[in-house]
Amino acid sequence: MAAVAFGATVLVAAPLPGLHDGAEAAPPKPMLGRCMDKYGTSPTPPPAYKLPGSKPAGPNQWKTPDAEDRFYSYDHLAKGFEALTDPGLIALPDGDNPKKYAFGTPEHAVTTWKQNQAGAKPYAGSFNEWLNSIYSRNEGNNKRGNGFESEVVKYFDLGGVDWICQKNVRDLDPKLYKELERTLGKDVMKDGRVFDAVNQRTRTVYEVKSGVGYDARQLKIDAELVRRGWKVVYINGQEPDANTVTKYKEAGVKYYRHAATPNPRYTVGKYTPSTNKLMTPDPNRPSFGSGYDMARRSAPTPEDARRQMERARGLIQQPGNGLRSPGGVDFSTLDISYIGQTKTGNLSYAFSAKNTDEETAPGYGGQEKAQLTSDAFFTWLALTPDHFWVNLNPDDPDTIMKAPFDKTDAGRVLLEADMEMKHDFGRAEDPKTEAGKRFWNEITKVNGAPCMGSTRNWIVPKKARVRIEKDGAYILSAPLDVKTVAQDYSTPGPGGGMPCTLTKEQTAHNMDVYRETILPVVQKQINEDAKYADLRRVYKARIAAEYVRQTVAEDPKAFGGSFSKIIDSDQVKRWPLRGKNSDWDKLTVWKEMKRSYTEGDFKYEIPVGGEVWVYTVGGVDLTKQPQQKVSRTVFRTEKPNLPSVTKGSRNEALDYQATGTTVMGGDDSGNAGGGGPSPSPTPTGKPTGKPTATPSPTHTTTPQPTPSATTPHPTPSTGGSGGGGGGSMADTGTQVLTIAGLAAALLAAGGALVRFRRRHGLNSQ
After folding, report:
1. CA–CA distance, 586 with 106 (Å, rounded to integer)
2. pTM of the predicted model, to two decimals?
């Protein structure tokens, strides 16, 4: 009687129409397991044309518009103690049996670990790695999946007698189950196939996955159902990667994206991950969030990342509900994309990074890149803008950079990028390259040999595109530029000096050729090449710091007044040179530049005759931070729902739209859970998601910083574009000096030999 009263065992044993080939059968009788009973959806079924997989063609055919503005909650208790490193710190009053404790508690985690370590295949990594990579991940996948399924069913109002939720094909149609078992094998069908939502009348199956993956066994079954005439649609919470999309297409299933934002609930406690070194102005008020969590959990090296991935293989439950893990993030591309403050006045932020294939190229090094970003952010605030330049000039060893900027990683990155740019100009002029060949062919010839005077090249910012919202600044792009002017230097290079003389008109012609051929090559590298990623990273931190600087200038109580003792303090001891760079010295870089300048790094022999040395000096000038303010309309068009994703990323690393980008947020509020509201929609028979209005901006312009002291390097020479004045560099800037005819060793007629020589014991070619 109890079973009848509760309906727990009442099933329809008759075959479902459409599961077999043949004539249309009569509609089945209503059965328990209906979605409307489980989730409270409408007794009236929704129109098919409004559902995933059935929508008419259009921009939202395969995704829910404004879904990111919707938040769904679930309990993820293990997130509250992921920083636990020693399992011995947890008391076990009921013994070592995991069954004695609730899933998601420290006691259950520790006893499960002990059980694992006593088993035949103990986990090879540390307890904390297992806790984060396996235990907490599994708890999150399980509970997130249930929460997302509820969100999807309610949003699309899967009601009426025909929509059934969480039923196994083995119970729905035993005959079909046997047929699938014969076709696919007992191993594939041993657990049957549980449908998240199935409509018997329309022959539609919805498989709901909150994350980025899929279950390979389920997909095999679904491919067979498609072959039998069923429509199977996978509804993903995040954008499937290319490999997943390929698998979907091969199986014949459709996919749809409902990017509602997960909102995990947990309690902050003694072992909740937090940091007083990353993105927090007050070391006594630590920072929490997925930005720090992802960085903390990422492996330090590629080898460690692969080993960690292998240790987790086969241990992850419900992988299709998993969100982006550290191995799926390319931390080499990490930078800051948002800075603002919470309603309570706490600092909030978000990092962004490109996604990577965890199987073939797992991400690593997140801790180092996040810390560099954070340290640079506070360095730009602690020092006045007149510090933000570096100068590699053989004539000027005393103004390499201004103290204490030389004791920070931000200063180191600028100087090393400048040195790298010196080499890239030399590489770009190689006649073997397309740009180099054109350059040598088109510059002025003196006595039959090409003659190029010296130039000064330096890195400066272009206008950053920034959207200022009520809650903070969204950094949309931050391009860098390279300026160049003709300029002479007194320090002689290899061979003692300039062997040819140019007129003013010839110099102008050469500079035009230079800007058309060589300069674009180096500009592209600085904005795109991985070796300049740290430079781009610290520059974006400069933009974020500028927002804070200007906000505090307008309201000293902004951010709870926590920046008042930092801005322009000239104190950077909290953000020093770290790790392998702790003993870095600016003079080491300058001496290498001086050696390179006087002895040469690159030497080419060109077909028209003569031996050519290429040697350079350089600089970077970030004393100014120009911005282009992006309008509300443009922002909403280019970055739809980005504020919602950024807010939600505080507690979960979220994939943004179909951009292949992960957003990872945080703040120093100390609160757990809650990226936003958790709607409980009333069934309406149609989607109810509506966009959230974008707040009006509180800033309209960002004034340029005013240096508090005179920049200590010489005034620029005149007569060239991109010279000094208004905060630009003077003798900073990469100089490229190319001299024809130093060795006067003519090549054989028709010869095209190019020789590249390195000094100081390096191999010659």
Report:
1. 48
2. 0.82
